[in-house]
Write a structure and sequence with these properties.
176 residues; alpha/beta; Rossmann fold; 5-stranded parallel beta sheet; 9 helices
Length: 176
């Protein structure tokens, strides 16, 4: 049985990779594992604004469930200050964004006729987590976009796709 690991980050190349992975999995009746790796970084201003709208209910629930009452509901929903100050909230937002991306990707693959679609959300160094996940799950092909939502640092140190291509023990397809 063949298993393809698809790494997604919401970028345009990752969307093209989703198309290819879905087509190949459907054509060759292979399993598709869709992976999103949350690289823990401070939220950008755009992410903060989006989170306040998109995840208001989850943030309100977080404030209500905070056992130490270290953060109030209004503080959680205030732009920038609390979201960047509280790493836990930042991590929550990254997980929510990743989960939404995975759900959308899975729905797309299913709509294209892929029968077995699994999703996984990890946190850490994206290249390392992609390779580790491929090894642990027995994937025999990795598909990812050639340029993701990386930072300036990735331009200097090398992109995720470059690292995965160099270090992966299985075949890798990078998509533009």
């Amino acid at each position: 049985m063949h298993k393809t690991l698809l790494a997604v980050d919401g970028s345009e190349p990752a969307k093209h990779a989703l198309e290819l992975a879905s087509d190949l999995a459907q054509k060759y009746d292979s399993d598709l594992l869709i992976l999103h790796v949350s690289d823990p970084h401070p939220l950008s201003e755009d992410e903060i604004r989006m989170a306040e709208i998109e995840y208001a209910d989850e943030l309100s629930q977080y404030a209500r469930d905070d056992p130490l009452k270290t953060v109030s509901q209004s503080e959680v929903l205030r732009t920038g200050v609390s979201l960047s100050r509280h790493q836990e909230i930042s991590g929550l937002i990254h997980r929510l964004m990743g989960q939404k991306l995975l759900e959308e990707s899975k729905a797309h693959a299913r709509a294209k006729g892929v029968e077995t679609v699994e999703t996984r959300l990890e946190t850490g160094d994206p290249a390392q987590m992609i390779i580790e996940t491929a090894e642990k799950t027995g994937a025999n092909l990795i598909i990812l976009g050639n340029r993701g939502r990386g930072s300036f640092k990735s331009l200097v140190l090398g992109s995720v796709s470059t690292k995965v291509n160099q270090l992966s023990p299985v075949n890798v397809i990078t998509v533009r």
